[in-house]
Amino acid sequence: MSNQATMITEGRIGFLGAGSIVEAMLSGIVKKGLLPSERITVSNRNNMERLEQLANDYGVTATQDKFEVVRSSDILILAIKPKDAAEALQDLRGVVRSDQLIISVVAGVSTSLIGEWLGAECPIIRTMPNTSSAVGLSATGLCANPFVQEEHRELATKLFEAIGTVYEVAEEELDIITGLSGSGPAYIYYLVEAMMGAGATAGLDREMARQLTLQTVIGAAHMLLDTREEPSTLRQKVTSPGGTTQAGLEVLEAYQFQEAVTAAILRAAERSREMGAHYQ
User: For residue 273, what are the CA distances in angstroms to 84, 115, 145, 244?
Assistant: First the structure.
């Protein structure tokens, strides 16, 4: 594994799991040309229809034989449901090789527990991407166990940089990253739903309300990125005393909007910790 570029272009990646995050990653990897689709294998336990859909859409190999996936993969990506992780990984004892790189996107499950279940001293990288992987705009947190070498870090970073930005963090920080950016797209979609609904309720054509809302969100994000100003500063700049924006913000404050968002993120992070503790 000394040549990262060769490993990505000539090696094989296997996915255990075929949910939405796997499809998002597949879309990003295939669109970026990071790895030929014929060198990617996807597996799940009991939904062959889903596997056939992924095979048709992305040209990957699909199988319900997880042992085949493990044996044929240089990089094994764990994307199974947390509740199924213990049983699924304990089944792989004696199959996983010490030279395989294990990358987990299983929420709440630590690298040490994954290693314990696999019964192998192998490099394990735990990550938390989000579904914006599908359009190459994921924000991914990443941490490593003691068996991970620099070349593994570079390989995982390159893999996830193909679908967005990557931040290496301490493992204990992954729970809050899960709440903030892992679950974060859902909060934005929820906001967009509300804004679109308000426009439609007030009489706008629904498609127009959608386009106005999306452009507003995109524009605000670019303002934050391009100006590098604090969000509070930009908010104040568009809030004239006694104006329409102030009137709207006063309603959000009355509903404790910021407190609700903070509570949602912290609760998601807490849930990630709960999920991990359940399996200790």
Answer: 17, 18, 18, 41
Q: d(Cα 179, Cα 186) in Å, to the nearest integer? A: 11
60 contacts 54 by C-beta, under 8 angstroms? yes
Compute the Cα dihedral for 34, 36, 41, 42 and give only its sign: positive
DSSP label at 91?
A: T
Question: In this structure, are residues 189 and 217 in contact, taking their beta carbons and an 8 Å threshold?
Answer: no
CA 88 to CA 205: how far, in whole Å? 49
Q: What is the pLDDT of residues 16-51, one digit of tens each?
A: 999 888 988 888 888 878 889 999 999 988 889 999
Helices 244-254 + 257-278 axis angle, to 10: 40
As given in the structure block, the two tokens for residue 20 are: 């939405």
**Model confidence, pTM:** 0.85
